[in-house]
Amino acid sequence: MITGNGYHTHYPFLAAALASRTTGPVLELGAGDWSTVMLHYMCEAQHRLLVTAESDADWLSKYHGLATSRHHLHHVPQEEWHTYPVAPPSGEPARWGVVFVDCYPSKARGPLIERVRPYADLIVAHDTEMPEVNGYEPLLSSFAHRADFKLVTPWTTLVSDVAPIW
């Protein structure tokens, strides 16, 4: 196993999910230097809505320059992840093409995946080598389709109830 710096090990799988596997809007739960900018440009090129939600207002402010009519940024206080609306916005398709889950605190991730599941074609979850910390298991194992990428840490897992991963 190769140990990465922890911030970008999801990158190839997230990019591949947008490039060839999905259509529809994209939801990013947790902003980051490796995900937000890449998602912004890929969604712009594909004319897809991107919604980025982040619990750290100062961190989110780094990305305000990316906000457009097709890229919405939302501050979600840590204690309010459980009430953040996870359905796609009115006027968009009824399902997210991709949902990326990498938010803080990590204990919010499992419940967010459970809540977004009915609206998501494909969910990309980061840091899945710590299932007890992030509340990922047994939830991820309950999806119809799953692929785990463990070559580098942190691990990335893709799940779907809609279609096989690859």
Order of helices and strands: EHEHEHEEHEHEEE
How far from one another are the termini? 22 Å
**Computed CA radius of gyration, to the nearest angstrom:** 14 Å
CATH superfamily: Vaccinia Virus protein VP39
- Discrete helix count: 5
Protein topology:
Blueprint: E1 2-3, H1 11-21, E2 26-29, H2 36-46, E3 50-54, H3 57-61, E4 71-75, E5 96-101, H4 109-116, E6 120-126, H5 131-134, E7 145-149, E8 152-153, E9 156-160
Parallel strand pairs: 1-8, 2-3, 2-5, 3-4, 5-6
Antiparallel strand pairs: 6-9, 7-9
Helix pairs in contact: 1-2
Could you name the key traits of this structure?
alpha/beta, Rossmann fold, seven-stranded mixed β-sheet, two-stranded parallel sheet, 9 strands
What can you tell me about this protein's structure?
With 166 residues, the protein is α/β, with parallel strands linked by helices. The protein has a single domain (2-6, 19-77, 95-160), classed as Rossmann fold. It has helices at 11-21, 36-46, 57-61, 109-116, 131-134, and strands spanning 2-3, 26-29, 50-54, 71-75, 96-101, 120-126, 145-149, 152-153, 156-160. It has a seven-stranded mixed beta sheet, with helices on both faces. Helix 1 (11-21) packs parallel to helix 2. The mean pLDDT is 92.
